[in-house]
Amino acid sequence: MKTITTLLILVFATTAFSDTIHIPEDEPTIHAALAASGYGWTLLVAPGLYESTETLVLNGQHLIGESGNPEDVIIRMIGNENVVRLAYHFSLIENVTVTGGWLGVSSGWDMSTTIRNCIIRGNTGGGVYHNGEHIRIEDTIIDSNGGDGINILGWIEMRDLHADVIRCTITNNGGGGIITKVTFMTLEDCVILNNQGYGLTTDAWDFSFWNGYVLEAENCVFHGNNPGGDYEGRALLYPILLRCCDVDEERWLGSHGISIDNNDCGTSNDEMSWGQTKMLFR
Q: Would you report the helix, strand and coil content of the chain in percent, each value rounded to 5?
């Protein structure tokens, strides 16, 4: 009886704590690793090119490039599907390049998801599309996609919509840089540059309970967006605050007000603007 009990404990322990899969050492493909894992598992991807004809669907897994350099792990879609879908709470994608699909990364209803230290590039329909509760995008380059760099929709039934975009570079996309329709959004330390549409568009749902700014941007650069139009950014329905941001104030349209606070926004080089200094390091 003691032997059987000990065996059961060992089996349980092995099952409970085998929550990391190495690709391709343990499973040959990312699809196989997703199928063999579950919520909360970590999938570590070795450097290489990983091609797929079907969307990679994360149901709470963490898909992480093992080297820490997103250029080392290339996930490329062959066809016109979305490359990655974050389909359940706390799904995370980190340290990878996502390319070749319709959308680079999509996530859906009632989801709280994270994109970290990725490159999302060369997707026909756009970079990131989020239609859910909360998303955090940090230390990520989103460039040269055919549509919008980031499109965050949200739903009017969800009154706690929040998006954070931190230390990201969003540039040379065929649509706008960022389009958002959420209750509140934070931008920090971002460069939004040379996108064909507006650098930033806020078009929040008509939340009558909301009192304050829909979007606050701090230490961000907006330059060269919507090159054929009169305006580089616009805020509809609710005001936005641009704090310590490098912008051309005359190229911003705000039907409900755009506040620009550039006090205490110094730079170490008096001959260059804060934004120009930042772009040297991007």
A: 10, 40, 50
Residues spanned by the domain of 159: 147-282
Give how far Cα 108 sits from Cα of 128, 173, 211, Å: 11, 22, 27
Indicate the SS3 state at residue 14.
Answer: helix
Residues 174 and 106 in one domain: no
Are residue 153 and residue 48 in the same domain, yes or no? Answer: no
pTM: 0.86
- Count other C-beta atoms under 10 Å from residue 46's C-beta: 14
Among candidates 228, 173, 178, 179, which has minimal Cα distance to 195? Answer: 173
Residue 48: name the closest of 31, 71, 27 by CA: 71
Band of pLDDT at residue 168, cut at 50, 70 and 90: very high
pLDDT digits (tens, 9 = 90+) for 6-29: 444 443 333 334 599 999 999 999
